[in-house]
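Running this now, will post back.
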Amino acid sequence: MNHPHRYRVDVVWTGNRGTGTDGYRNYSRNHVIRVPGKPDLAGSSDPTFRGDATRHNPEDMLVAALSTCHMLSYLHMATVAGVVVVAYDDSAEGTMVTEGDGGRFTEVVLRPVVTIRADSDSDKALAAHEDAHHACFIANSVNFPVRCEPRIVVSSD
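Update: finished.
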């Protein structure tokens, strides 16, 4: 059965330096992302596009959304498979190309390193990534490839 879920986000542009957008170089790309009941996120554009490098940009957040969605799906699938995960670290990377006045992502590669308890099955731990990929809401919502290059480490504890 289809169960709709809604997510509310408020975005407020804070980059008016006094003259609005009267020139491409005259305004800041800074903004605040507000989600009810959660801390604000300071946003901007990528520094390549005149943004503030100290703030989150949409491209970083898209890669982060894919990485965290996969992680959360993976932890569930690992639990269902009887695999005990004791650590999970991902170094995800997205590739975007610019085209005319816009651009698009061409792929995102997830590189999770998953540490499992010694009595867990490494093959099941690896297979859980494929299940997680198919379950990930965000990966199922994008129109570019999301590849996963996992590494499984068995804990020595």
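The two ends are 43 Å apart (CA to CA). More later if anyone needs it.
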